[in-house]
Design goal:
The structure holds 2 protein chains of 2 kinds. By secondary structure, chain A is an all-beta fold. Chain A has no helices and 11 strands. The interface between A and B is medium-sized, with 27 and 28 residues.
C-alpha cells in the first residue's frame, strides 16, 4: 500500500449505531488530520494530531471521537450520529505539523446516516 | 481570521480551451502558505502546488500555471489546452504561520471544472 488509505470507503449506519473509520498513512509522516466534506459546506478541518498528540479540535461534537495510537494510524469513532453528519470524511497526513507542509489525502469514507 | 474565496462554482469548457480558476484570500499574517488541490471524481484530493507568501514568482508545470499577486491577495490557477482528464473540483487553500500549533488549512469552496470532448 502506498500513500494514505481509508477504510471503509462507504458506510451506512443508523443513528444508534457505533462504527469506526480507519486511516493509515504509508508516507512516514508525523501529522494526521480528519476533514469533513459535505455538499453544502467547504472542507472543514475536524481534528489535527501531531506526533500522536491532538493539537486541534475544531469544535467538533462529542459524537465524533478521534484516536491516534501512533503516527501511522488514525481512527474516527462514531456514535449516535445525526443525518446531517452524512458526508465524505477525508483523512490526510503531512510531514510535520508546520503550516508549510502540504497535506496528502486519502480517498475518503462516504458516510450515510439513516 | 483567514478566509479563501473561489467565486466560480463551476466552469465548463471544450477540450483544448484554456481555463483560469480564481482564488482570493484573506489573512492578517505576513507569513502564510497557499495551496491548490485537485479532487477528481474518485474523491481523493491531490496536491498540486504550494507557494509561500515571500515567493511571488509565477510557476509553470506542464499545462498548469499559477499567478500569485500579493497586491490583490490572489493566487490564480490556469490550465492550458484543457483535457477531459482535467475534469475535477479544484480547491485553493491557505495556512498561516502558527508555529508548532499545527497545520490548519482553510479551503475555499472549490471550483468544478468540466472539460467536454
Amino acid at each position: 500500500e502506498t500513500g494514505v488509505t481509508q477504510t471503509p470507503r462507504h458506510l451506512v449506519m443508523g443513528m444508534t449505531n457505533k462504527k469506526s473509520l480507519k486511516c493509515e498513512q504509508h508516507l512516514g509522516h508525523n501529522a494526521m488530520y480528519w476533514y469533513k466534506q459535505s455538499a453544502k459546506k467547504p472542507l472543514e478541518l475536524m481534528f489535527v494530531y501531531n506526533f500522536k498528540e491532538q493539537t486541534e479540535n475544531n469544535s467538533v461534537p462529542s459524537r465524533f471521537s478521534p484516536e491516534c495510537p501512533n503516527s501511522s494510524h488514525l481512527f474516527l469513532h462514531l456514535h449516535t450520529l445525526q443525518p446531517e453528519d452524512s458526508a465524505l470524511y477525508l483523512c490526510a497526513s503531512s510531514h510535520g505539523g508546520l503550516p508549510s507542509y502540504e497535506q496528502y489525502f486519502g480517498p475518503g469514507t462516504r458516510l450515510t446516516v439513516t | 481570521a483567514q478566509k479563501v474565496t473561489q467565486a466560480q462554482t463551476e466552469i465548463s469548457v471544450v477540450e483544448k480551451e484554456d481555463v483560469t480558476l480564481d482564488c482570493v484570500y484573506e489573512t492578517r499574517d505576513t507569513t502564510y502558505y497557499l495551496f491548490w488541490y485537485k479532487q477528481p471524481p474518485s474523491g481523493e484530493l491531490v496536491f498540486l502546488i504550494r507557494r509561500n507568501s515571500f515567493d511571488e514568482q509565477n510557476e509553470i508545470s506542464g499545462r498548469y500555471s499559477w499567478n500569485f499577486q500579493k497586491s490583490t491577495s490572489s493566487f490564480n490557477f490556469t490550465i492550458t489546452a484543457s483535457q477531459v482528464v482535467d475534469s475535477a473540483v479544484y480547491f485553493c487553500a491557505l495556512s498561516e504561520e502558527r508555529g508548532a500549533a499545527g497545520n490548519k488549512l482553510t479551503f475555499g469552496g472549490g471550483t468544478r471544472v468540466l472539460v467536454k470532448p
